[in-house]
Specification:
The longest helix is centred in the first third of the chain and has 27 residues, at 18-44. Helix content is 77%, strand content 0%. Helix 1 (2-9) packs antiparallel against helix 2 and helix 4 (81-104) runs antiparallel to helix 5. It has one domain (2-9, 16-132): Substrate Binding Domain Of Dnak, Chain:A, Domain 2 (Up-down Bundle), CATH 1.20.1270. The protein contains five helices and no strands. The chain has helices at 2-9, 18-44, 52-73, 81-104, 109-132. It has 137 residues and is mainly α. It is elongated and about 50 Å long.
Length: 137
């Protein structure tokens, strides 16, 4: 796990946060790619008009997941306020995307996969947020 190794070697990384941050980063990167792929697959479906809200949720979630992964990758013991807010927002976006994808999960395997990935990512974001604790800066 290169991400875990990078987080562990950061001179300012707080012990106890490293594993949660690394898991969150990996989940966010995976979710961003999955949501992007789901949106693309939705666009290729015959009933694309019924998938517009799902596509928007996919793209919003992908963007927030990328931002969360980037910010978490740069977190080295500094202020946690913005990171915690972004992780909470990312988890909410993942929940929203999972709800939209779940509506189509019985008809589109890509939506079923995306919904599960989003739920996992939301959980990892919340876990990392809990591990970060209160802002000290």
């Amino acid at each position: 796990m290169p991400i875990q190794q990078m987080i562990e070697t950061h001179p300012n990384a707080a012990i106890g946060q490293q594993q949660a941050l690394a898991a969150c980063i990996e989940a966010c990167v995976d979710c961003a790619q999955t949501c992007t792929s789901c949106a693309d697959a939705c666009l290729a479906e015959a009933d694309v008009a019924k998938l517009v809200e799902c596509i928007r949720a996919d793209l919003d979630c992908a963007d927030l997941c990328r931002a969360a992964a980037n910010l978490a990758s740069r977190h080295g013991g500094g202020s946690t306020k913005i990171l915690r807010l972004l992780l909470k927002t990312c988890a909410d976006a993942c929940d929203d995307c999972a709800r939209h994808c779940q509506v189509h999960a019985d008809h589109h395997a890509h939506c079923r996969i995306c919904a599960a990935t989003c739920r996992d990512c939301a959980s990892e974001c919340r876990e990392a947020c809990d591990r970060l604790g209160a802002d000290t800066h």
